[in-house]
Known about the structure:
alpha/beta; Rossmann fold; 13 helices
Amino acid sequence: MRTIAMVNQKGGCGKTTTSINTAAALAERGKRVLLVDLDPQAHATIGLGHDPDSFHHTVYDVIRSGNGTLSSVIVPTNVDRLDLAPCNVLLASAEMELARISDRQLLLSEGLRPAADLYDLCVIDCPPSLGVLTFNALVASTEVVVPVQAHYYALEGLKRLLETVRIIRERFHPESMEAVGLLLTFVEERSTFSRQIQQEMRDLFGDLVFDTVIHRSIRLAEAPSAGESVLTYAPHSRAAADHRALACELLGETPEAPEAITEGLRRGIQKHLVTLFSGVWIPKAARSYEPGTIEST
């Protein structure tokens, strides 16, 4: 089973979005795929239409209880051949709990072992940090994909990440040190700065940078509110085409000629905020003064 860790310690780079849609695109191409949500925010779980708080067993149990629990964790999704190992906020406590366990970097590897014969690929959505959970993902993975936003701050953080990946892979995967790919996200072709970042990344890192880039798209922002991947939410969009092309590149296949890109009629958020915040305490904003009433002293 090929295991791909989507890693970047910087938040907001499109890591979860890329994990969900790449996994869906791989499944669309006939592969059996397991998506592991290793981020305590549970955005991959939510993005595929599940309520994180509804699960009695999650990835947390896989890490804490051993490989025998994996079968009780995995749930199906609305994408054929794509299954999900969900998580919830309980996973946040794992960082502290695992700190007291020897060989803690190997726990996810051991937990995923039963999946090796059930799936062709496993995609791990990692948290935006370089803590114990991310280390587990890097050790468990056979490949690393780093989504990198076409932005200067994102490139600054990339330096530390690459050094961390080097250290871990030297220790645990010396035979696959170069199995690392950089994926440019939030690309805007009409932006001179974005084009410059692309060119300089390719000049510096060469073949480490995927030919495919993920363009900035409103469809990618809308799809999670519908609990779907963009491939089912907007199958003829540019965002769907980007992720299909990435799946082909990961599989070493030639992308099919894209269908005509149409945006369709679906617009806006698909899950209203009043539903999302149902039952949640919302503080009342109170001004301590009214504008124009402050007395000078």
